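Section 3.1: Structural characterization of target chains.
Under the original work plan, the team committed to producing a structural model for every single-chain target entering the pipeline before any wet-lab resources were allocated. The record below documents one such target. The sequence was received from the expression subgroup and is listed exactly as submitted; it comprises 188 residues.
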Amino acid sequence: MKKIRLLLLDDHALFRVTLGRLLDTDREFHVAAHCSGTSEALDTLARQQIDLVLLDYDLGNKETGLQFIRRARDSGYTGRIFLVTAGMTDSEYVRALGQGVCGIFLKHSAPELLTEAIRKVMAGETWIDQRCIQGLVQAVEREERAGQRHPAHHRKAPACVHDRDPRFAWNQRTSEAWMRAAIQRRES
């Protein structure tokens, strides 16, 4: 059986390592690369066959996942891109889906769900975290109302939910939960 080749793009080294260890316990996955920035990830995409990019939205240094998606597509990458993020605004969810991501997975979700989500997106399905769906509906409704009132008016969304709400920040407790899941999977 051919393994699914993954590229992890996240500016948090602890999360990349923990996620890589969790995914390496699954015989269907091969983590081909861990990248901390867009340039490194784009170089990897140019040199290696990658089936799925697991992409954080907020990449630090004022880089976002949406900027990476645009650059990856412009450079010819046609594979799947799956957002694994601590949070985004409702309008950012809409823009990401509009740019063709195959799903959105929130980091504070149960780690076991991620492997299920990866399998589903690789089977051609779209995975959207349940907590995102209400926000998506509200964003679309707001855009429709704003379009009816001010068709030329477009507001820039804030950078990221976790910039404003510490509940969504990647923290030690979340990291420990993901590490425990990786260890339990390796032991079983």
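The chain has eight helices and six strands.
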